[in-house]
Amino acid sequence: MSPTTESSTTEPGATEPGATESSTTESSTTGPLTPDELAAVVARDIPEGSYVNLGIGRPTKVADHLPDGSGVVLHTENGMLNMGPAATGDEIDPDLTNAGKVPVTELPGASYFHHADSFAMMRGGHLDVCVLGAFQVSATGDLANWSTGAPGAIPAVGGAMDLAIGAKQVFVMMTLFDKQGRSKLVPACTYPLTGVGCVSRVYTDVAVIDVGPDGASVRETFGITLDELRERVPVPLKAA
User: Fold this and answer.
1) Is the separation of the CB atoms in 128 and 169 below 8 Å?
2) Does 119 have pLDDT greater than 70?
3) What is the 3-state secondary structure of the chain?
4) Which of 41, 42, 50 is nearest to 70 (CA)?
5) Which pTM was predicted?
6) In sequence order, what are the beta bridge partners of 235?
7) Residue 6: pLDDT above 60?
């Protein structure tokens, strides 16, 4: 489903005195986006020709929504460039998987390499974008995505720290609220940090939000208004 524009928080050409023009797109969806719908929104915003890593879990769905001819080259932590969409049916090869062990396809020109070389690409600034999941993101772009600190939890940071600091842009893909209804966008992360000030944009089931040194700005919403978000999220939310 492609969200359609319903309204903007700012009238065209109308700004407050001394302010720059800004607006938030409020999309006419009836509820939160599904993981596939959200993956399509993320795919839409990845610049053509980018080198991109997709984190384990929901971010891997982005591969299925990149348009033909985009020139986007997908990198997998386990050692592959030019990964294609998820494999189905007769396409499945148990030896060809992404870092999350999901069977994938290969596109023309795909290449394979050692795990150490893969991490050199991640740490060396060779990736334009990475898309990661998260437990929490702060309004200034801090990321917590590897541990909740729960008793008995197995620490599993994997390559998340390398990606968070090595990629030129870090997008986070997550639900905005947890199972208890608490916001995952927070003033300061309370879970162990993956990276400080590394996230540039958060894609959630109800809103797309830019984060960074200037705080959080809402670019668009899905089935919820900016004012309703402000009532539920414990950080100041500006119109983008």
Assistant:
1) yes
2) yes
3) CCCCEEEECCCCCCCCCCCCCCCCEEECCCCCCCHHHHHHHHHHHCCCCCEEEECCCHHHHHHHHCCCCCCCEEEECCCEEEEEEECCHHHCCCCCECCCCCEEEEEEEEEECCHHHHHHHHHCCCCCEEEECCCEEECCCCEECCCCCCCCCCCCCCCHHHHHHHCCEEEEEECCECCCCCECEECCCCCCCCECCCCCEEEECCEEEECCCCCEEEEEEECCCHHHHHHHCCCCEEEC
4) 50
5) 0.88
6) none
7) no
Residue type, 181: G
> How many CB atoms are closer than 10 A to CB 196?
14
User: 91 CB contacts (<8 Å, ≥6 apart)?
Assistant: 103, 105
Distance in angstroms between the alpha carbons of the first and the last residue of the chain: 23
Kindly give, in sequence order, each residue whose CB lies less than 8 Å from that of residue 137, ignoring residues fewer than 6 positions away. Answer: 143, 144, 172, 174, 184, 185, 186, 189, 199, 202, 211
- Count of CA atoms in the C-beta half-sphere (13 A) of 93: 9
Check: CB of residue 118 under 8 Å from CB of residue 76: yes
Largest CA distance in the chain: 62
pLDDT tens per residue across span 11-39: 333 334 334 345 888 876 677 999 999 99
| Nearest by Cα to 211 from 139, 142, 130 | 139
Rounded-to-integer distance, Cα 175 and Cα 183, Å? 9
Q: Which residues are catalytic?
A: 77
How high does pLDDT run on average in the chain?
A: 89
